Structures are given as structure tokens and as C-alpha cells.
Amino acid sequence: MRLVDLPGGGSGRAYLIERELERDGHAALKSLVADYLEQARIHQQIPMAENVLSRYLDHLAAAERSGGTD
After folding, report:
1. N or C: which end of the chain has fewer CB within 10 A?
2. Among the residues of 1-70, which ranges form H helices?
3. Taking Cα atoms as reference points, which of 39, 36, 31, 29 lies closest to residue 2?
4. Domain boundaries, the chain
5. Per residue of the chain (70 residues), what is the pLDDT tens digit?
6. 60: closest CA among 51, 69, 52?
């Protein structure tokens, strides 16, 4: 099973969020969807979009360099 984010208007890029979800169970799927929707609400963007993902990875790298994880 795959979880994807499809454009609401019917055209545009589709984003793969996660695959092989059947291994983790229904509770993991619900948690993943809830977190994804919360991140979309907070950032007002598609969480898997390259610019959002790049900023998040940059944030993680900076936190790692400084010794923190926030």
C-alpha cells in the first residue's frame, strides 16, 4: 500500500509520502496521515514539495552540527 498526495484540482504533480505501509499497521498509517496533514496546515504547503523538504533537511543538518535535534 502506498500513501500519496494528489492535487485537488486533478492535474499537477503527485507526491509519494510513504510506501509498504501494510508492514506497520493501521495505527502507524493514521499517525502518519495526521502528522502529514498537520505539517501541511502549519506550513500552508505540500510537505513533500522540494522546497519544504529541503528546508527541513537543512534544519536537521544545522541541528546536528550544533549538537541539538530541535
Report:
1. C
2. 26-43, 50-66
3. 29
4. 2-66
5. 888 988 888 888 888 888 888 888 888 889 999 998 998 888 888 887 767 667 778 888 888 888 865 5
6. 69
